[in-house]
Amino acid sequence: MIIVPYIKYYSTNHKSEEVSFREALLKGLAPDGGLYMPSSFPTLNSEEMERMPEQEYSDIAFTVLEKIIGNDIGKEDLKSICNDAYDFEVPLENVTGRMNILRLDRGPTASFKDFAARMMSRLMHYYISRDNHRLTILTATSGDTGSAVANAFYGLSNINVVILFPLDEVSLIQRKQMTTLGKNITVIGIDCKFDDCQQLVKTAFRDPLLNHLPLSSANSINTGRLLPQSVYYFFAWSRLGKGIHDKVIFSVPSGNFGNLMGGLIAKKMGLPVKRLVISTNANNEVPQFLKTGVYRSINPSINCISSAMNVGHPSNLSRIVALYNGIMNEKGEIIRQPDLLRMREDLAGISVSDEDTKKTIEETYSRYRIVLEPHGAVAWRGLEEYLKLHKEEAGNLSVSLETAHPAKFPDEIKQIIGTDPVLPESLSGITDKEESYLTLENNYEKLRDLLKNY
Ligand SMILES: *Cc1c(COP(=O)(O)O)cnc(C)c1O
């Protein structure tokens, strides 16, 4: 029998104790304000990798996740959670030559965030049911997280969910995906930007007056969201029909960098990754950091059409810094500089303007009849630009991640390509549904009062 190592999770601020996966999952944020990270990354062996082309997505999820949370959950339990969470298709489309698009938009909320949220909610439900506990999930969303989280937790026993969103930064469909559920899901619109919503959540987690609440977060700072996002990188590789020695370039449309962290974890666990291209909109603080070694957050963040990526200070950046032996605190200050040379070997940063994003949606449609939405278009454009700059890598296989369904952005798409994107089943009829949500000003005391009485 192979003993699966018991992986501990440390805080990126290094001032809290290491904890088990279960604790990292249920706590969300470490007591010192840092984010939890696995202290080691077990690698998959070649046999496990070679089996993947014949496996379903849910089997690959089990193989990968068992490695990293292994001892902390029953094997059969994890298997059935994977089967239950991943029952939708994940198409890999060849576009041209060696360039491909992975569509992560076929889950119940038509966003890639379903991959993380569905696994995390089921893992949390598993642990609290086992321990007979209750939980209140408090999370901030720039659109897609909220709907994915709301849908993932909807109807689960002993869990209440409170979701904060910036009133003006969320599309009608995104809002309706959260506000039409009811039951254990409470949604609050706040008159502020996404970064402010996130700050409110962070403040609540540090507030001693809320200590009595069993609070947990479900946004991209939670470890339970991070790990499942490494799985689709393995899946994409397995569908390319290549061996372990063919290294793949991935282009990742990035906002809070949870998706990108998933790619880095996959690489750490043995996936043959040539490079991860960080594709951002005009919020280019990380590409700049990569280039100059100086980090400057963008405050307030810039409004772009790829709205889920309008992030001026990505919450997962301290994790990326930690992977390269650096320390970044929760304010975004670098306490210890990461190994920039190694970072540049693994990562490349490309920032894409709104103008080029629209042009890309138009071009991919007229050239290949492929419909992209703004986030996927940023990634595709980033990949194209990267390959232009690195002609020597044209022989590598590449995968651009499409993170939302085009039908979630009907106005933009119609305006650019002239036809309406086809609505996936999960979204049809949603605009006619009745909504219910609270509104609040950007004031922490008001939020605290509301949570205290919750
Ligand atoms: C959240 C989101 C992103 C950004 O993902 P991060 O993990 O925050 O970098 C990109 N595209 C869409 C559609 C999203 O919802």
Question: Key terms for this structure?
Answer:
18 helices, 16% strand, binds pyridoxal-5'-phosphate, five-stranded parallel β-sheet, six-stranded mixed β-sheet, Rossmann fold, alpha/beta, 454 residues
Task: Give a brief description.
With 454 residues, the protein is α/β, with parallel strands linked by helices. The chain contains 18 helices and 15 strands.
Helix content: 25-40%
CATH architecture of the domain at 91-108 and 225-417: 3-Layer(aba) Sandwich
CATH topology name of the domain at 91-108 and 225-417: Rossmann fold
List low-pLDDT spans.
Answer: none
Rg, Å, rounded: 20 Å
Bound molecules: pyridoxal-5'-phosphate
3D shape: globular
Distance between the termini: 48 Å
Q: Give a count of the beta strands, DSSP E runs of length 2 or more.
A: 15
Class by helix and strand content? alpha/beta
Range of strand content: 15-25%
CATH class term of the domain at 91-108 and 225-417: Alpha Beta
